[in-house]
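so ive been stuck on this for like two days lol. basically i have the seq below and the ligand is ribulose-5-phosphate, smiles is in there too. i just want the complex predicted, nothing fancy, no docking runs or whatever. if the output looks off dont worry ill sanity check it later, just need somthing to start from for the group meeting slides
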Amino acid sequence: MKMAPSILAANFANLGHDVKIVSDAGADYLHIDIMDGHFVPNISFGPSIVKSIRSYTDIPFDVHLMIQNPDQYIEDFVKAGADIITVHVEACPHLHRTLQLIRSFGVKAGVVINPATSASILEPVLHEVDMILCMTVNPGFGGQAFIPSVLPKIEWLAEQREKNNYLYEIEVDGGVNEETIIDCANAGADVFVAGSAIFAKDDPAEALQNLKSVAMKHVRRG
Ligand SMILES: O=C(CO)[C@H](O)[C@H](O)COP(=O)(O)O
Ligand SMILES: [Fe+2]
């Protein structure tokens, strides 16, 4: 079970400090949300910010691209320090090519699906992706309510992985808190993104550790 704090909910004026807090508290990945104002109705930040926080931690950077034409920017995010890059299937008309491009830079490649996208669309690439990210809110904003109808997709992805010995991690993103993380873990998720449930708390380190221990107690038994 891995925790991936989302810096979308961190203090942008003090990012290095916030990154260090969750890194020291045992974060497994740092989840970095890139929004372009086109694919999603919000703008976050670009590769230069990613580069500027790279020196604050050694944990892998999990870069969630919510952008149109991701192929155009993948190399920039690799150079900025990304270790895992996930792209939305809804933004990739040539998904296989995009995954090849990500891997050509020697980083891990993953695919994201929105709440209203069926997981079966990913069947042709399941054997070769490192991560599947199931959005549990509609992407674009932190602090939204978890959408429980996504849970059967997580179960299906976990079943496919068990049946076929696939190697991808199943990540959930959006509205993850101490209650909703239980259903996600039971369904088979193993990487948990949390923004507001960590950074909006008085003690982000303690919040992260609590979330992880709840997830550990509810590991899916296949
Ligand atoms: O991708 C995202 C939004 O599009 C964020 O990673 C996600 O919303 C995290 O925020 P919170 O945990 O507050 O829901
Ligand atoms: Fe995200």
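Strands lie at 2-5, 30-35, 61-66, 84-88, 108-113, 131-135, 169-173, 191-194. The helical segments are 15-24, 47-53, 74-80, 95-104, 151-164, 180-187, 196-199, 204-217.
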